Structures are given as C-alpha cells and as structure tokens.
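User: If only I could read backbone structure tokens as easily as an amino acid sequence. Those tokens are not coordinates but codes from a learned vocabulary of shapes. Could you go through the record with me and say what the backbone is doing? Here is the record:
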Amino acid sequence: MSSRAHLSNGGVDFIAEVVDGALVVRYWGKKIGNEIAQYSFERSIPNSDFDSIQNPGVLREHSRGWMGYPTLSGHRSGKAWSSHFEVTEFKSGKDFLLVKFVDPAISLELELNLKIDSSGVIRLNYSLLNKGDEYALNELVYWLPLSDKARESLDFAGRWSNERNPQRRGIDVGRWVRESFEGRSGHNFTIGEIALTKETNFATGEAWSIALAWSGDVRYCIEKNYEGAQSIGASEILAPGEIILAKGESYKAPELIAVYSESGLDGLANRYHQHLRARPHHPKKMRPVTLNMWEAIYFDHSEERVRKLVDVAARVGVERVVLDDGWFGKRRNDRLGLGDWQVSEEVWPNGLRPISDYVASKGMEFGLWFEGEMLNADSDVYRNHPEWILSEQGRTPPTWRHQLVINLANPDAFKYVLDSISKVISEANVRYIKWDHNRVLVDAGYLGKAAIHKQTLSIYNLFKELKGRHPGLEIESCSSGGGRIDFGVVDYVDRFWVSDNNDALARQQIQRWTMQFMPPELLGTHIGPTPGHQTGRALSLSFRAATALFG
C-alpha cells in the first residue's frame, strides 16, 4: 500500500500521506510539481511534550495527542467515546484519493473520498459505518490544514433584506466559529468560510475557502493553537440523538467543497463558478427576462388585472411571467390558506390554465409561486391534519409570519405536498416555480426526535421528484429573499432570489458578495420600483436596470 498521494488538477495540488496509521495532509495550494517528495516533515520534540512524535492527522483524535477540536464525536451509552482509527486502505490517482479507516475497538469504519476537478476544486465526502451496537453520533467534522501564510478570515453576516455583509478579521489563537441553527442556511449564513493572507485582495494574493453542501444547520470554524498550527473546518450541526446508527447503518456527511486561489478573491470566485458550470444540469440556455407580479399586485388577484400586466410584459420583451402568492385556497392575506394547494375559485373562477395559455400565446413561459414547506393554522390542511406539523410532541412551535412548518419527513405529508403541487403544475402548464421558505425551524421534531436532518433531505427529495415528474421544470430558491443560498440546494434549483431588498443600491453589495460563491446566471435580480418598497429610496430607472443586469 502506497503511503503518499500527490493529486493535481486545475492548477491545484493536494498531498497527503499515511504516518503511523494516520492520514496527514501535507499540502493544499498552487501547483508545485514533485519537489516536495524530497522534503522531510519530521519535527523535533520540545520540552514538556509527548515523549514521541504524535501525528493526529485529519481525524484529530484525542488518542493520538490532539488537544483541539476533534473530527469525530460520539458514543455508545457513554462508552466508545475515544477513537483510534488506522488507515487500512489507501488508493490514489492523479485526481482522486480513497482512504478507509478502521477502529475495531469501537466497531467503526470511516471512508473518505476526495476528488479534484478540472477547475481545481476539491470535493470531500465522509461516510461513517457502524459495525457494533447503537452508536450516537454527535458530530463529524471536515478539517483541512491551513498554510501559516493565512493570517485573516473572511465570512459574511446579515439579516432579512440585508444579506451578505463581509467581515474580515485576524486569525488568532483559539476558534472562530460561524453557525446556523435556523433549520435552513439563513440570512445570517455565510455560504462559505475563507482564509487569506493579509495582502490578499480581489485580484492578488492567496486564499483558501470551504463550503458545505447542506441547507440545514451548519458550523464553520477556523482553529489555531499556540504552536501556530491552524485549520479550517465545517460540519453539519446535529441535535442530541438526531443520528443514532444501528448496527450496519451509516451516516453520509454533506459534501465539502474546498477551493484554493493564488489570484485573490476573484480567483476563488472563478473556481467556484467553473465548478458549478461544469455540472451536467447547470442552466445552459440564456436566462429568460422575468416578470414577477408580487410588488405589482400583492394579494389583489384577478384574471383581468393579470392579463393587462401580461400584455405590458410581452410588449417590453419579457420571456417569463410569474404569478406570486395569493392564487390558492382562501389566501387573501398572509394569515390564512397557506398549504391548501388548490386554485382559488374566488379569484380564479376559470382556474389558472386560461391565464397560462394567454401567457404562452404571447411567447412567454408561465411561472407560479409555492411555499410547500409551510402552512397556516387557518388552513384546511392544518384543520384536517394537525399531526403533520414539524414539532416536538405535545406542543406547537411559535408561529413566524403566521406560519408553521409541515413535516416532510412524514410520508403522508410528503405525498400530499408532492401530489397537490404536481397536479397544479400539470393543469396550469407551469414551467417555473418560485419556491419560498419564509420562516426558521424551531422545536423541529418528529416521533420524539430532532428532525432537521430528515427535513433537509426531504426537501431535496421533493425537488428531485417534482423535476422528475415534470421534465424541464425550473425552480427558484427563495427564502424571504436570500435565506437559502448554499451548495446543497444548488444541485436541485436553477435560480436563487438573492434578497427581498429590491433597492438597487443595496443590491449592489448583496449581489457582489453572493457572486463570491455563486455565478451570476443563478442569481435572480429584478428592476425594482421607485421608491423602493424596502428602503423608500428613489433611484433612476437606468441605475436600477444596470444593477439587475448583473444577474
């Protein structure tokens, strides 16, 4: 078994080797050739230290002398808490690495798959297999070492209508942590974590970045010990008891995407964009000019009014018309009707097919708004199935925007949402969905256990099923604006609504920093009204239009 792997692709090298049974990453950065094979990585033993050199490697185990944050945390009824994995399989090629670790004492096996694509982006996948009695998994963290040249971190914070505000700080001894506990990525979510040199700017300097492909709860961190060793890491946040592995069961961690640049922040963005554009399902056709009617009519729907807007849209070159909230059930305001996915006979007595056909007759696509993960307490679906709420047994979570969360991990609830929405898509010839998600998940339980992990997998599955039933259907991810933009949901959607803030001046920064990770063709950018409904600011049409052209 070879003990060293040198991966190289897209101008990026990654070098790892097995030392005393542990996997140690030696290098992650710009292409350097083979000269590193001549180097020795042995270090001396200082006073007041272990009597022999310890190599904790990427698994950062307490049993191997690691005194920082571990990779794996879990137990069996308080036992099997400390692991000591040994590498049992090590296979590599020019652009891939497969490593299998085994700890027979605690009956666990761990597998790491790592690949570098042609854009230089590294994709890592952990899978943990339990071969013993029930094992309670607390956390499985991806860790990658950082060069000592990385002196600062960059991530993003925000709130509703003010997403993606950059915050840059020095890397000091200790841990810098960014976490999301919303059950979605959220407005305060940093799509990825970045480490960089002090001199790095947009065009020059080195930078290292990671992004977790997950839309549930996420933790990013940068850790530095007093000896100067520093690492960057990410993991899915698991609630107590959320992942209990029976014998033979496994946990697959969300994929980690790792990106290096020697050309500053723009170099990072370019690699992220190339990586996404290489996907076979990435949007290839020109993004259509879209009219969303929300700020034009809000809940005041009528076929006559919408037809007039369709006529205007056709005259100015719009290619897709989207009817937003208010077309279904008793949904005359945001307090009732959510979850009743049947066309309202009150405001659409002829159904939606006539307006959809009218849109098509003008050479445009018809799109429709859904919020399939939510419902109102004042809705038929809740009155008929209060047990479908995502909640801890015996209590109802506090409402948010008058909404509760429907439990998509419940097979009956999942089937209802899928079938009812699919029926509307077919009957109205819907080619595009604006999919909203307007609240955080709290007290999110199912059958007495935490359920954000299952809920996240369920929404991925729902999107997959809808697209499978309706080939060519496009989905926009909206979450009160930019509350769910991440590398997990991006594989299931075709567009992100970047922010509910349509003020062009505010949008300049929000769009700029969202494009640090996501390419512009995935960003929904509209020409908003003046004055802006969120800021009250009046801006010229030319400025608003120019800003929208960046998406």
